[in-house]
Amino acid sequence: MDIRISPDAVVSSDRSFVIFDAHVRERSVQCSIACEALELYFWAPAGASDAQLLKSYADGRKRIEAIVYRKLLATQGEAVGLSMSDFAR
């Protein structure tokens, strides 16, 4: 499966997720990663600004992409949400 996640992402209005798209073959899948996962596993500071969260997302894109890929293989879902437990392995 060929996958790439978008470098363009946004912080949700409640600041609990960073939202981005994964492009798989001919379709786009909406994805998100919990900001607490970015803080714990991608070095975003606690209480990070939107810019800091997006930088942590950008810096960790390859690792995030790998987890999205595995979740899509397992579920073939229409949306993928990543939480702290996805990175705790």
What report would you give on this structure?
- The chain is of the alpha+beta class and 89 residues long.
- The protein has one domain: Shew3726-like (Double Stranded RNA Binding Domain, 2-Layer Sandwich), CATH 3.30.160.140.
- The chain is built from three helices and four strands, in the order βββαααβ.
- The chain has helices spanning 35-41, 50-59, 61-75; strands at 3-11, 17-24, 27-34, 79-82.
- The protein has a four-stranded mixed β-sheet with strand order 1-2-3-4.
- A hairpin with a 2-residue loop joins strand 2 and strand 3 (27-34).
- It is globular and about 35 Å long.
- What is the spatial order of strands in the main beta sheet? 1-2-3-4
**Which structural class do you get from the secondary structure elements?**
alpha+beta
**DSSP strand count:** 4
| Domain unit count | 1
- The first-to-last residue Cα distance is 22 Å
Strand % is 25-35%
Low-confidence stretches: none
Regarding CATH, which class?
Alpha Beta
CATH architecture: 2-Layer Sandwich
In helices, the fraction of residues equals 25-40%
Question: Short summary of the structure?
Answer:
This protein is about 35% helix and about 35% strand.
Topology:
Blueprint: E1 3-11, E2 17-24, E3 27-34, H1 35-41, H2 50-59, H3 61-75, E4 79-82
Parallel strand pairs: 3-4
Antiparallel strand pairs: 1-2, 2-3
Task: Fill in the keyword field for this structure.
alpha+beta, Double Stranded RNA Binding Domain, 3 helices, globular
